[in-house]
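Structure in, sequence out. Go:
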């Protein structure tokens, strides 16, 4: 059921400029948002006598609760899950929060975007589409089930997998439900749209490929243990899947044929990364492995990067790993050699993202860091008002953050 957008109690636009200090230290049919006045664009707040809402108590401590680490962003900027974005994001030591608007309640997965519209799903299954320009809600739809992962976006469709084992396909423009399909087990991976198909992995170990237009089952594979992450090629012909049984597999999208299987030294709980030449995967013990894309052969491995760290980011010939040891590593993507290591004041709470020449990272301060990709030097270090478990999303010259309360804030460079 697509429902009329709801204006939540907190609805604030921030227009003040904030300065960033130094970083250092160790450590359906849809409902249009403009109709009937049920939802309007964010209301500006003057700098004098600004209205503020009472602080909201976080419902989960960082890294705790129902799979907080697993529910961290799985969008990663595209099918390859590389964490690389074409948008530059905000640059400089002064930025402005263009708007801050509450889109949903309790969000632990990342937002996705086509550049004009933001899509996100709350942990209770409220799917929301909003304008990038001002945060105004275009439509919302409740699937009435819990959601652990980010939605998938492709071909004008939004795909959502819930904890009851259903995959939903919504029209990205209107929010109308095009189809829904039940699969065996809670959907544990972000749906991966590939070449007219969409692939999901379940907690029960099922790997299911559905037709993106109708939801018809194309093929299904049974894994020994839960599926924890997927990454696809740009042409959609193949994808790589990681399972909790330490196996990493390359699979043909059209047939479900397993091209190769590799075995890690320990289990993994995060999504792999697929590039033109290699697969990068970080095990739960903190060992980063680079596998040959064609054969699955181990090319190099780097141990001791941090227990239960996040998915690596691969961009510009480097691999960036945010470690729970309060370190940000930059490694050579070909050799695995260290380029630089950045001490952090706090443990990371989401995987890093790469935009132009900057690495953006959220830590448990909670803080937003912008770090030079070439040297590890800092651009920005800003204290956030609430915990963020999802990756930041670069949009043009802005950076979108969605905190655990469902408040979306777009930061832009100060003029």
């Amino acid at each position: 059921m697509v429902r009329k957008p709801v204006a939540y109690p907190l609805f604030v636009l921030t227009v003040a400029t904030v300065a960033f200090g130094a970083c250092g230290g160790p450590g359906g049919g849809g409902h249009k948002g403009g109709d009937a006045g049920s939802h309007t664009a964010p209301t500006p707040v003057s700098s004098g006598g600004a209205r503020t809402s009472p602080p909201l108590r976080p419902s989960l401590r960082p890294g705790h609760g129902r799979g907080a680490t697993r529910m961290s962003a799985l969008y990663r900027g595209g099918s390859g899950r590389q964490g690389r974005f074409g948008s530059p994001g905000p640059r400089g030591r002064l930025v402005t929060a263009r708007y801050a608007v509450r889109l949903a309640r309790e969000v632990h997965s990342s937002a996705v975007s086509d550049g004009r519209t933001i899509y996100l799903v709350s942990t209770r299954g409220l799917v929301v589409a909003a304008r990038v320009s001002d945060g105004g809600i275009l439509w919302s739809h409740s699937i009435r089930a819990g959601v652990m992962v980010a939605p998938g976006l492709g071909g004008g469709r939004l795909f959502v997998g819930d904890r009851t084992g259903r995959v939903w396909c919504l029209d990205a423009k209107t929010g109308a439900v095009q189809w829904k399909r039940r699969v065996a087990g809670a959907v544990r991976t972000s749906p991966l749209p590939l070449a007219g198909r969409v692939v999901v992995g379940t907690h029960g170990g099922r790997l299911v490929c559905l037709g993106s237009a109708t939801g018809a089952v194309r093929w299904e594979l049974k894994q020994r243990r839960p599926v924890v992450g997927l990454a696809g090629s740009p042409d959609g012909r193949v994808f790589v899947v990681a399972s909790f049984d330490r196996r990493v597999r390359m699979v043909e999208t059209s047939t479900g044929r397993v091209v190769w299987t590799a075995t890690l030294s320990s289990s993994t709980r995060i999504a792999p990364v697929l590039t033109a030449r290699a697969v990068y995967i970080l095990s739960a013990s903190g060992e980063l492995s680079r596998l040959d894309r064609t054969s699955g052969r181990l090319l190099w491995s780097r141990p001791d990067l941090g227990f239960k760290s996040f998915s690596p980011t691969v961009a510009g010939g480097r691999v960036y790993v945010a470690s729970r040891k309060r370190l940000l590593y930059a490694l050579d993507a070909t050799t695995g050699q260290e380029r630089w290591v950045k001490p952090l004041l706090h443990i990371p709470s989401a995987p890093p993202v790469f935009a132009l020449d900057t690495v953006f990272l959220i830590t448990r301060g909670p803080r937003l860091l912008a770090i030079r990709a070439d040297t590890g030097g800092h651009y920005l270090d800003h204290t956030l008002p609430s915990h963020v478990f999802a990756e930041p999303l670069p949009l043009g010259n802005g950076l979108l953050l969605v905190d655990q309360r469902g408040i979306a804030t777009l930061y832009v460079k100060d003029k």
